[in-house]
Design brief:
Structural class: alpha/beta
Strand content: 15-25%
Order of helices and strands: EEEEHEHEHHEHEHHEHEHHHE
CATH topology: pyruvate-formate lyase- activating enzyme
CATH architecture: Alpha-Beta Horseshoe
Largest sheet: 8 strands, mixed
Strand order of the largest sheet: 2-3-6-7-8-9-10-11
Shape: globular
Number of domains: 1
Number of helices: 11
Low-confidence stretches: none
Number of strands: 11
Helix content: 25-40%
Length: 262
């Protein structure tokens, strides 16, 4: 993993994601190394995603200046990288940015695959308007290590969600992407865990194949003798709709609001 400390010219960018006015990414690159990630295609990044992280050391200072003049709006933290990837424990860029957002009274939406977020529970609980979403694509730890090698175990994410929910923080789950033959394994157990953790909503998305996605997924699928089936399923919208339908039905039975991103 190549780690570089860099300086950024701006901290906030306008977001096109629903419900977000701004995006804030304290790092460029991500050490989670998720095999299905297409952030590099979104950013047009040519370096191998998952093998580098740029630490934006001056992001909190730049953010403090921007917040003095920016119109209030919801700030999405971690839209193209995980703001709580392991390096955050050392650099604390995300925590310092949260301190600035709290000082200026901006609403915040965080999305992560890391239980490290609990370190900042003290700050999070001080916000008048904040929500935390946890990406959860599977429950089985063997498959999590295969597809999301650097992320926190799913059970740790669920425990973090439950901890924040118990403190009155609105939490939600992102089951995305649906991974063919993987997300389905113990799907009901995953949804039971999400319900027990106190999530108010579940957002579902299908697998989106981008420029280099197959190159990263291929070796994992070949190792587990799944490649042939995947080549058919990733192009089958009806398959994803079927799995999403199961999720919707289960969420309705559990009293959880469910939305689709596709």
């Amino acid at each position: 993993m190549k780690i570089s400390e860099v300086r950024c010219r701006s901290a906030l960018s306008h977001s096109r994601l629903p419900g977000l006015k701004y995006a804030l990414n304290p790092y460029r690159g991500c050490s989670h190394g998720c095999k299905y990630c297409y952030a590099s295609a979104v950013l047009r990044e040519t370096r191998p995603w998952g093998e580098f992280v740029d630490v934006k050391r001056n992001a909190p200072t730049i953010l403090a200046k921007e917040l003095r003049t920016k119109e209030k709006g919801n700030v999405g933290i971690g839209t193209v990288t995980d703001a709580y990837q392991p390096l955050e424990e050392r650099f604390e860029i995300t925590r310092m940015c949260l301190e600035q957002l709290l000082r200026h009274g901006f609403p915040v939406s965080i999305q992560t695959k890391s239980s490290l977020i609990l370190r900042d529970a003290d700050l999070i609980c001080e916000f008048e308007e904040i929500e935390v979403g946890f990406t959860l694509t599977m429950l089985d730890e063997k498959w999590r290590r295969a597809f999301e090698p650097g992320a926190s175990p799913s059970k740790d994410r669920l425990a973090a969600m439950k901890s924040l929910s118990s403190r009155g923080i609105r939490t939600w789950a992102f089951i995305g992407p649906i991974l063919p033959q993987v997300t389905e394994r113990d799907l009901e157990g995953l949804l039971d865990g999400i319900a027990d953790a106190g999530a108010s909503d579940v957002l579902v998305d299908k697998l989106n194949m981008k420029r280099d996605t197959w190159a990263k997924l291929g070796p994992v699928l070949e190792e587990h003798e799944m490649e042939g089936d995947w080549r058919n399923l990733v192009r089958d919208k009806a398959y994803f709709e079927k799995v999403a339908g199961r999720i919707f039905d289960s969420c309705e039975a559990k009293g959880i609001n469910c939305l689709s991103a596709f």
